[in-house]
Amino acid sequence: MKPASFEYHVPDSLEQALELVREYGDDAKLLAGGQSLVPAMNFRITQPNVLIDLNRLGELGYIREVDATLRIGAMTRERHLEIDPLISKQTPLLAEAVPFIAHPQIRNRGTIGGSIVNADPAAELPVLMLALNARLKARNVSSERWIDAQDFFAGMFTTTLASDEILVEIELQHIRPRTGWSFMEVAPRAGDYALMGVAVLVTLDEQNKCRQAKLVYLNAGDGPVDAKEAAKLLEGETLNEKLIESVAALASGQEINPFGNMHASPEFQRHLANVLTKKALKQAKKRAEENLQ
Amino acid sequence: MSQSLSVTITVNEKIYKREVEPRLLLSDFLRHDLGLTGTHVGCEHGVCGACTILFDGESMRSCLIFAVQADGHAITTVEGLAKDKDDLHPIQQAFWEAHGLQCGYCTPGILMTLVPFLKQNPNPTEDEIRHAISGNLCRCTGYQHIVDAVLLAAEKMK
Hints:
The complex is a heterodimer of chains A (293) and B (158).
Chain A: E1 7-9, H1 14-24, E2 28-31, H2 37-42, E3 50-53, E4 63-66, E5 69-73, H3 78-83, H4 85-90, H5 92-97, H6 104-107, H7 112-118, H8 124-131, E6 135-139, E7 144-148, E8 166-173, E9 179-186, E10 196-204, E11 210-218, E12 225-226, H9 228-234, H10 241-255, H11 266-290
Helix pairs in contact in A: 7-8, 9-10, 10-11
Chain B: E1 5-11, E2 14-20, H1 26-33, E3 52-55, E4 58-61, E5 74-76, H2 90-97, H3 107-120, H4 126-132, H5 144-156
Parallel strand pairs in B: 1-5
Antiparallel strand pairs in B: 1-2, 3-4, 3-5
């Protein structure tokens, strides 16, 4: 058999699952969609003593509107993000990016919560959570807390979740008027891990000057990389060619820290970041001008 | 002592009850425990698509699911597509006619990817087809004949 042996638990309710994570803590791995965990187990890179399978927690699979926010259950399959009309209407950036996640067969099984908690710097969903200022709800047996996405990712495959907590829900704000979005990445083949990628949001004011901007990069450091200085350069300014050039140069040259891999040197990754930033900013600007609501 | 769990899994509309170790992959369960060797095993880490099956009607990698997780669920493998060799599923027939395979190793995974795809997209464009099969590696055909076969299958299924 490919994976090493483990003790298997399959709770029928969130309460039971929380009891199990309290009992086993770091000895246990949570199995959500398993589209990253099971390959790691097949290679025996990961050999958990205990596996707690969350796939019977139907209560954690939903996409709903609450007040002016979207609430998404952590066990919602990526495929559902791709096809749900609420997602494309209220968070078009997410809808645009999800088809870049691996392949259709993987998205049918993979979950939003699993990908976020896995915190792979090359994955799309952690980048999107940061770009969208998501709030993430964690629970343990006795309490719950909300964690801002910017306080959630703590380095390579690491989050600030405690060992007795489960990520249960993701909250996203609706897109604001005069806001444009863009998600772009470059991968050797469709569905492969991207060599570089960027999520961009731009909000314009009445004079078409930038009120607020966000640029977050994947595979650009030890977690999703928020290029805050580059975003600041845009604020209060008109997005012209010259400014876009400077923003792309700052983000790709100084704010990201790509490590390189067998397909791309760090220099090439920075080059890709530069090109993608310019293209994505232009697309986001155009969409912001059209998104008057 | 390793755990042994009792599962009841419907495969190609037939109900199987078996005892499985939790670490047994669904792909190995289908091949070794049930003898359904039409589901092929390639990379065993979710990249090649050879082991694609339908899990409650949706295409998934059987190498990235444990057999124990299929307890109570319905699986369809390539063996479930045709009653016999003279009564092929229209997608199989189209692959035959359009030369959509050479060695055939990737074919079961591709067929199982396409069954739900063509149900959801009865008039696919070439781009949509290439996106749909992007998770299935074929080293023989160069994909062109596969795309032709899918277009032909879509015609046949109208």
